[in-house]
Amino acid sequence: MAEKILMIALSPTMEEGTIVEWHKKEGDNVETGDVICEVETDKATMDYESSQSGTLLRIIKQQGDKARVGEAIAIIGEEKEDITEILKEIENEKINPAPQEKKAKPAEKKQESETVEQKHTKPREEAPPASKPPTKEEKAPPTPGRIKASPLARKKAKEMGVDLRSIRGSGPDGRITVKDIENAKAITPQASLSNETKRIKGGIIPVSTMRATIAKRLSESKFTAPHFSVTISATADRLLNLRESINSKAEKKLSLNSFLIKLSAEALVRHPAILSSWEEENIRLFDTADIALAVALTEGLITPVVRSAESKTISEIDYELTDLIQRAKTSSLTPEEYTQAGFTISNLGSYGVEEFDAIINPPGSAILAVGAIKTEPIYDGETFRPAKIIRLTLSCDHRTIDGALAADFMRTLKAMIEEPAEALI
Amino acid sequence: MAVISYREALNQAIDEEMARDENVFILGEEVGEYNGAYKVSRGLLAKYGEKRVIDTPIAELGFTGIGIGAAIAGLRPIVEWMTHNFAILAMDQVINNAAKMRHMSGGQIKVPIVFRGPNGPAEYLSSQHSQSLAAFWMHVPGLKVVAPATPYDAKGLLKSAIRDDDPVVMLEAELMYSWEGEVPEEEYLIPIGKADIKRQGKDVTLITYSKPLRTVLSVADKLAERGIDAEVIDLRSLRPLDTDTIFASVRKTHRAVVVDEAWPMGSPASFVAYAISRECFDELDAQVEIVTSEDVPMPYNHRLELAVQPSEEKISDAVAKVLYME
């Protein structure tokens, strides 16, 4: 019995695939699990493993052809089998491609009702013939594109999020049964486990106002500002020693972020073009270094701003920052305190992240992503010695900042980190 | 608990009800002097006399009509038909009088009568005496229809039928009269319209009534050896039909096979299958299969006679179909 090999959904979102290459040719023997062809999906090129076995009788979709999910790409069956009927069927499907749930056309309906049979009255061989046993030809033609699945299988598929189009049914005429759904689910990575053994509980979380704001602002930033980033490494030993010696005498320990804000402010004073904002008709240049720090909260993040960091001391910055972070965590910041920064710092160093790209926090044009400080060997011309290395990545809006400007700014910042006294000059 | 035969259980039910209520009496062919064609009324003539145990001529329409008249007049007759095959002659009285009087009198007339006797195929009886007429009775609003398959159910249901104020048709089976089972000494009743789960299971629901129950239970045991856990529902009552029990089981197993000795078209099995398809549509993993007698008059040849009835093999095949094991 010749059967169609259908294009299946090889990715959850795939609606159409392109045949990249056939691994089998007409006349070849195909076993279940054999890769018969490669298919380019919306996501990747995937191997198409056959779930049928037999002889590949006809390739319908040649290399480079596109096929919708559910469309026949080949015919498989027994050697030398007559496939004229099935080809006709495929031809018909091409002429009237039926959406999945399209109702049978009146003509088909009529045929179905004429061929209703009491299957159960089929006599045993030794019994006298009772009602006419149904013959293959009398069977109502399958509605093209319609998926045969038991009602329970449909219900289960919906519950488990399984796409029926991706499953080959094991029941009569390829009907998908509940077992097929369970098996399909069992071999996918997100296998459904009983609640007792579930380690990951999925679900739906309503979007909070904060989440919505983050989503909206960052999408706008990422999709409108052409981002590019530059990364530089700096040796941070001197900065760290300086901080340590100050902190050893001070009552209140100054955070590394306070130092980074101060040094960034000094670098911005030297490269004021970084402190800019794209306003379509104009480019706004800020007149103070208002530097935000990204602070992680359980439900999102917030960017409290230290205003005019260029005219504040590190301890003033630190004092302000401590207060801002504390109030950020209790959601008691006013909008004026966390918006309108000209520059932002995001530090993931405490997580051990070495370097990363951040998304620009508008209206600013640049954000500094700070990685972890790692001890690495460096070569000083004669010998290797250990050094504390910090990697900094600046993401910039190319509408206002060009590569050379970003690189120049980073060179200055690196110099200040490596020799903090540079900031005083 | 005493182990007694099905016929003995029926005899106890009639005896107890006749002793309890003097309005209860039995009439029919051979119920008195001969002690019943199948010995169900053994000893009753000697105990209650010929006013309450009445031998009738061979005239089903006549004595069934007399019974219905007596019921309308306030007595509680039990009409024994030697077999349901002969009751075809009495159908006019049952369908047009017994089943309709309460409705047509606006509830003023009640017809508390029981019609009982063997139904369905037995052995070597050929076409005219080997048919299940369950569907004919089940079809009629105004009648109640019971079909117990064990001595326990037979006694409890017959007692309920005698006490019921509506006409009740009871389906027995010749081959079941000698079947034995446990029946308690103390009095009990089984409500009409309640199915009984004869075997708990989770993989497939097998629904039947009357004589095929034994075959179905035997199939269930053999399926268990193959790791298939079948639930067996004995309908016991065909009208009213205990759909709650059926649906609850199918919602659990997702598959159903209905086994029935009647012919397929318009059979009790076909109605049960329809009800399941309608109410449990989203719970079904396969079509509902029915296993009935073949759609032919009963052959006399014994091999053919066996071949046209529901068999263990046919039931197993149907189970394999709904479990996709073919």
From TrEMBL, chain A:
The kind of enzyme this is, by top-level EC class, is: transferase
Q: Where is the Peripheral subunit-binding (PSBD) domain?
A: 148-185
Question: Which residue stretches does the UniProt record annotate as biased composition, category Basic and acidic residues?
Answer: 91-127
Entry EC no(s): 2.3.1.-
Cofactor(s) recorded for this entry are: (R)-lipoate
**Keywords from the named record:** Acyltransferase, Lipoyl, Transferase
Q: Which residues form the Lipoyl-binding domain?
A: 2-77
* One Pfam match: E3_binding
Query: Can you name one GO molecular function term for this protein?
Result: acyltransferase activity
The entry sums up its family as follows:
Belongs to the 2-oxoacid dehydrogenase family.
Give the protein name, as stated in the record.
Dihydrolipoamide acetyltransferase component of pyruvate dehydrogenase complex
UniProtKB/TrEMBL annotation, chain B:
- What does the record give under GO molecular function? pyruvate dehydrogenase (acetyl-transferring) activity
* Requisite cofactors: thiamine diphosphate
UniProt keyword annotation of Oxidoreductase present: yes
Q: Which residues form the signal peptide?
A: none
Ranges for domain Transketolase-like pyrimidine-binding: 4-179
Keyword Oxidoreductase in annotation: yes
UniProt KW keywords: Oxidoreductase, Pyruvate, Thiamine pyrophosphate
Stated EC number for the protein is: 1.2.4.1
Recorded hits in PANTHER family, A to Z, give:
PYRUVATE DEHYDROGENASE E1 COMPONENT BETA SUBUNIT (PTHR43257), PYRUVATE DEHYDROGENASE E1 COMPONENT SUBUNIT BETA (PTHR43257:SF2)
Q: What is this protein called?
A: Pyruvate dehydrogenase complex E1 component subunit beta
Question: What organism, scientifically named, is this protein from?
Answer: Rarispira pelagica
